[in-house]
Amino acid sequence: MSTILVNPLDERVRPKANPAPRLDTLEGKRLALLDISKPGGAVFFDRLETLLTERYGVASILRITKPTFAKPAPDEVLAKIRAAQVHAAVEALAD
Amino acid sequence: MKKCQPTSVVYHRGNVLPDPPEHDRKHSMLEIGAAAPAIDGIEFSRPTLLAFFETDCPACQLTLPYLNALQAAVEEKAVVAAISQDSDCRTETLAKALPIEIPIHIDHRLTASRAYDPLATPTLFLVDRRQRIAARSTGFDKTELNRIARRLCDLAGVPVTAPAAPHDGNPQSKPGCTSRHLEPESGAADPDPVDVHAQRGQRAGRAVLPDSEDPYEYCYEHGFADPLPVVPPTVERVQRMLAASGLPPREIIARIPPNFGAATVEKIAANAVMAGCKPEMMRVLVPLTRAMCDERLDIHGVQGTTHFAAPLVIVNGPVRGQLGFASGSNVFSNVARANSTLGRAAQLMLRNLGGAIPGEIDMSTLGNPGKFSYVIAENEEAGPWAPLCVDFGIDPRRSALTLYCCEPPRGVSEHTARSGAVLLRAFCPVLANLWSRRVCRAPEALVVIGPEHAATLKRSGFSKDDVIDYLYENTGIPAAEYDDDGGEGSKMTQHYEECVIRSARCYRKFKGPESIRVVVAGGPAGKFSAVLGSWQTGKRGSQMVSYPIDDE
User: What is the pLDDT of residue B484?
Assistant: First the structure.
């Protein structure tokens, strides 16, 4: 007699998300830098901001920080990034 | 999908949104006592509760099922009606998914929405027989919902009912979404409806194994389990679990983050079978699943952290004896089927439905042996104080479970202390080292006191609060340890509280006595206790939650 098992897993089929289109150049672009709020984030982003503006000619940078790294970014944080109409966003952490 | 906003923000946001046509900037949501505008198809000959909702609003999806219960309670004496701000198709989809059992009026041109002018959805308007607004409430809030229900019952002359019970798995409150008629015109196509708050999921799939297939190997190869063998979840075994639960197989108890896989009763049952649970464990697994997904616990963050944290379950009350939970010797280890299988079922669900696969979502640096199973019961018989669940407002006569996301136990040994105060001194250095020694205020602690230590404290007249106060007041880090070396916590001293402990200037380790919880567990012999350190704490991290378990 064959055995019939009940599937214990999450069976949803998830469509693969495509990455956002890459930028051809950083020159003159608006960027958001999202710091997840780990202690070393500011050090990393300060350096990144300098490199992006001085070496790659990024026009403006929105610095934004999550209220806690322990939870997903709340709607307010995402809304601020959308409202700034940036060309790209970088989320990062440094501990 | 439309983005939701906290209702507290909606009013302010209204000033920066483009004006919708026909709508003045000044909000004019109907006040108490105002005449209720007519709505096609709704008579106001009986007390009537109108619920304006949107199909993709999570707070609306939380509210509507309670209104089914409220309509059933008031029967024909009153009307409970839902006013949908979305299309027939989207409304019908949600009505089937939740389900919505009360009459639904589809507000096609948002005529009623403009007339009643709710700031956000859900908004409830209670209309009396004189067709006046008698009460109103915006957003999802259990207290408000029960207040409105009470008013409706009073107006209808039926016994008062409170449909929104605490500990039913839903949050106490959730902000609503901007009402459709206040949204800026986007011109974008209608998004697909979402079902994150649907209460019925799909039946689980079945795998038919030929005789040549070893079911134990099949489970391992198909990623059903942690690396230890599991009991194959055969249809017959799962059916026994379902029968014991008395719940419909498709009912969704919770969605487990971060993947938000639906923990239907059937999925819980299948994982419980694999873990080796007996069918009667379903009455613990259902509230445990709800508790694990309580937003205060933030299992979302715990599942993905590099820290040691894993959810520890602490069981209280009569269920300990009824189902055989161990609270004595070896309480943290391999002593009882109930402890080990309940904890393993929880971990299998976190992995199989929540997605916490080690090396993928779960990137813990060193892990935690508790990720196989992490369940203790409180030794209430050896404890001189009220059990842990009472600290969370649960009746001591009831069964309950409490969840705490923490690292593995750190031992405390003290064999010669004759008084409670001397005994507790042995705990302080262990507490001082939690998280990182020089980090203060953020860590929390669960102190598990062994019965011999509990007896010493009782002899010295220590209440539970006395124990906590002593530990709080006597645990600190000497200020002399704070060199300017850049070590963790060393640059945060301006946020710390200074104190003097045994003539030494110190920084207090804990933010307050509420950062320390005490439970009694363990066997009768051995002067040992344990301290369990927290993960991130408070509203920015994980908070302990306690849920009642239905007693037989």
Answer: 83
Q: Which residues of B373-400 are buried (b: 16+ CB within 10 A; e: fewer)?
A: bbbbbbbbebbbbebbbbbbebeeebbb
Q: In degrees, to the nearest 5, what angle opens at C-alpha B388 toward C-alphas B362 and B271?
A: 40
pLDDT of residue B181: 81
Query: Angle at the Cα of B61 (from B59 to B66), degrees rounded to 5?
Result: 100
Mean pLDDT of A15-21: 80
Q: What is the pLDDT of residue B196?
A: 66
Minimum-distance CB partner of B204 among A7, A68, A70: A7
Give the C-alpha separation, B426 to B529, whole Å: 10
Give A69 to chain B, closest Cα distance, Å: 8
Give CA–CA dist B436/B433, Å, rounded.
6
Does the beta-carbon distance from B348 to A10 stay under 8 Å? no
Q: Does B224 touch chain A (CB under 8 A)?
A: yes
- List all residues of chain B from 472 to 531 with a beta carbon under 8 Å from chain A: none
Q: Nearest by CB to B5, from A70, A71, A75: name it.
A: A75
Sort strands B516-520 and B399-406 into parallel, antiparallel or unpaired. unpaired
Q: Measured between CA atoms, how close is A57 to chain B, in angstroms? A: 32
- Looking at residue A1, its pLDDT comes to 62
Distance of alpha carbon A8 from alpha carbon B240, whole angstroms: 15
ipTM reported for the complex surpasses 0.90: no
Mutate which: B534, B540, B543, vs A, most A CBs within 10 A: B540
pTM: 0.73
For B278-398, strand residue ranges (E) read 310-316, 375-377
Peptide bond into A74 cis (omega under 30): no
% pLDDT > 90, chain A:
76
In chain B, which residues have pLDDT < 70? 1-27, 183-197
Task: Tell which B residues from 281 to 320 touch A, by Cβ distance under 8 Å.
Answer: 298, 300-301, 305
**Triad B497, B501, B504: Cα angle to 5°:** 95
3-state helix, strand, coil in chain B (%, to 5): 35, 20, 45
Interface test with A, best of B267, B294, B302, B495 (most A CBs within 10 A): B267
